[in-house]
Design goal:
Strand order of the largest sheet: 10-9-8-11-12-13-18-22-21
Number of domains: 3
CATH architecture of the largest domain: 3-Layer(aba) Sandwich
Helix content: 40-55%
Largest sheet: 9 strands, mixed
CATH class of the largest domain: Alpha Beta
CATH superfamily of the largest domain: NAD(P)-binding Rossmann-like Domain
Oligomer: single chain
Structural class: alpha/beta
Shape: elongated
Number of strands: 22
Radius of gyration: 36 Å
Distance between the termini: 101 Å
Number of helices: 24
């Protein structure tokens, strides 16, 4: 009958928390059993004990026991999630019970209470026996319930064999979190650690091994490992990438434990273990910049950022705010993205404390009267010009619009910077401006030429040039993510195409630093690291997704696209600066009068709306502009 009752109770509460009164009831039953055994033990040594003494002992010990059950709330623990703290609580409660009963016995002997009463006081032998047994039985009871729950009543979960890289504190915490997961049955088959003193040891009965003994196909197949968790929150980036790449080559799903500062409410669970993203594999060690230079440049100044709602422009705004400008004017023609940026900055730390210095303006840089109104109203000391059209195929089809925004829009902002006495103008350019093969790259080179020629003693013009940024709007990584979400295929234009990549914060850090060091007429080139093969990038993204059978489809180069990008033209050289990641390009400078004449002629041709005539004029201004895979290739044959 008792067994049936126990089974029904556990079955009823197998997927919810068992009420505390049930646990208390079981603990009381255990106390009664332990008390009976302890009395028999005491009777063996103290034959003078009577039934009256037994009942009084039961009342005294029962009162003390219930009191400490209540104080320590031992019956409120959720048994299925029992940990060391819960075990410790049971042991401490029993120790306090024994001490109080022992104190009663001691006080009785100390004050020599009359002999009949003395016989009613629990002896020290009985106390030790009683609470030792009670602690043991309570723990056995909880382990038994936990065992029954795990074996018979726990929901059947998907089983996953896991390796944890890191046998330190984070590895142990990750292991414990995996054991508590309610959706997947994780089995940690090995810990990996680089500390030789830990190798061949056991951690919670799991062996600690060397990386080479685990990260090989034989071990992975033998143990059926499907996942590796990197549990070293402060791991060096290059080491993390090496582990991830090796694991991906073995077909493992790669995850990582985030830094402790990112744990929710200071605690950690399995849901916080993050998937390694492609950005993690392309990221480089953080760049250090000289904050003193940027502070001196920005502090208490009025700053205008064009293209502020874009990937680069918005990050420039975020970073600039932390240098405490007097006012920052964030200008863009895109209404919805600018609204999103406004909402973010005004409502999130650490930016919202600078809300009084924020100004948001809807305007198009090619609209000269509107831009003049902005300059006249705010008179910026610094201008960061990030507004531009950048999509190569679109601009190849729309050269008129590309020139009006990228060339004449930049000209508008640059001319107004001089007119209204800005101290510095920093333009964000691209590696596609070097030996351009498309309209977009050529327009950016034309903007560079104009900007470089306009430096004065009052207004210094600086250009920054870098490649692709990870996760920027329209870049290849967001495209691959969308294609993966749709089930593939992933499309690459050519199997051998390569690109340079940089993170958005990294690029903006360097823009601010280069802007601070520029003295006028400079073009700064950033160290983009090693180029990445786009086909390999697609392969890695498929591996990271954990999907199988996703095809990579080669669709051919798009109009204006080239296999590789360059940061310097053939006739250009670079010289180092004080920052190891920033070089100063030595580029050809054009006479100011030639530029004014050429750009004036281009503007006259614009009114014809004849794309071929417009592009032909661009090629005369930028002789190195040789079209690739484009309808404008014919114009190069006529040169």
């Amino acid at each position: 009958m008792f067994q049936k009752l126990f089974y029904n109770l556990v079955k009823r509460y197998r997927h919810s928390t068992v009420p505390g009164w049930i646990m208390l009831l079981f603990d009381i039953i255990l106390f009664i059993g332990a008390f009976a055994v302890a009395e028999l033990f005491a009777w063996r040594f103290e034959s003078h004990i009577t039934w009256n003494a037994v009942w009084v002992n039961f009342i005294i010990c029962g009162f003390i026991t219930l009191t400490f059950f209540y104080i320590f709330k031992t019956y409120r623990n959720i048994v299925r999630h029992m940990g060391l703290n819960d075990i410790f609580k049971v042991l401490i409660a029993c120790v306090f019970m024994a001490l109080v009963c022992g104190a009663v016995n001691f006080l009785n002997n100390q004050f020599r209470v009359v002999s009949p009463v003395s016989r009613l006081i629990p002896s020290y032998r009985m106390v030790i026996m009683l609470y030792s047994m009670l602690a043991l039985l309570m723990l056995l009871e909880r382990f038994m319930v936990l065992y029954i729950y795990n074996q018979y009543f726990k929901r059947r979960r998907k089983e996953v064999n896991v390796v944890i890289y890191g046998a330190g504190a984070a590895g142990v915490i990750a292991h414990n979190a995996l054991k508590q997961d309610n959706h997947i049955e994780y089995k940690v088959v090995a810990f990996i650690d680089d500390d030789k003193s830990k190798v061949n040891q056991l951690l919670d009965s799991v062996p600690v091994m060397r990386a080479r003994d685990v990260l090989n196909q034989k071990f992975v197949d033998q143990k059926n490992v499907s996942q590796i968790i990197i549990a070293i929150p402060n791991i060096r980036l290059m080491h993390k990438q090496a582990i991830s790449n090796r694991a991906l080559d073995l077909g493992l799903n790669v995850k990582a434990v985030p830094h402790i500062s990112l744990w929710m409410n200071g605690s950690f669970n399995a849901t916080q273990i993050q998937d390694i993203k492609i950005e993690d594999l392309l990221e480089r060690e953080p760049i250090k910049i000289d904050n003193i230079n940027v502070v001196r440049e920005v502090l208490d100044k009025t700053v205008l950022v064009t293209g502020a709602a874009g990937s680069i422009g918005s990050e420039i705004c975020r970073q600039l705010l932390q240098y405490k400008p007097k006012k920052i004017i964030m200008l863009d023609q895109a209404e919805s993205p600018l609204y999103d940026l406004q909402f973010e900055l005004k409502n999130n730390e650490p930016y919202k404390k600078y809300v009084d210095s924020m100004v948001f303006v809807i305007a198009n840089v090619k609209d000269q009267p509107r831009m003049e109104e902005v300059f006249e109203m705010y008179r910026p000391n610094l201008v960061y010009h990030a507004a531009a059209y950048k999509h190569v195929p679109f601009m190849e089809e729309n050269p008129y619009e590309a020139i009006y925004v990228n060339v004449f829009g930049s000209k508008n902002v640059a001319d107004l910077a001089i007119k209204y006495g800005a101290e510095k103008f920093v333009m964000v350019s691209t590696d596609k401006a070097v030996n351009p093969t498309n309209v977009m790259g050529a327009t950016k080179r034309m903007a560079e030429i104009y900007i470089q020629s306009r430096s004065t003693d009052q207004t210094h013009f600086v250009t920054t040039r870098f490649g692709n940024v990870l996760g920027s709007n329209g870049s290849v990584i967001p495209l691959f993510k969308k294609q993966l979400a749709a089930g593939g295929p992933l499309t690459v234009t050519h199997k051998d195409i390569i690109r340079y990549f940089m993170t958005i914060p990294e690029a903006c850090n360097l823009v601010l630093e280069a802007g601070a060091m520029g003295e006028g007429g400079d073009i700064f080139v950033f160290d983009m690291g090693k180029p990445v093969k786009i086909y390999d990038l697609a392969t890695r993204m498929i591996q990271l997704s954990g999907l199988r059978g996703i095809e990579i489809k080669e669709i051919g180069l798009r109009p204006g696209e080239k296999l590789y990008e360059e940061l310097l033209a053939t006739k250009e050289n670079n010289i180092p600066t004080y920052h190891p990641k920033i070089m100063r390009a030595q580029v050809r400078k054009y006479p100011l009068e030639d530029i004014d004449r050429e750009y004036g002629e281009l503007q006259d041709i614009m009114w014809t709306l004849d794309d071929r005539k417009i592009v032909a004029k661009m090629k005369s201004i930028v002789p190195e502009f040789i079209s690739n895979n484009s309808i404008y290739c014919e114009l190069d044959k006529k040169k």
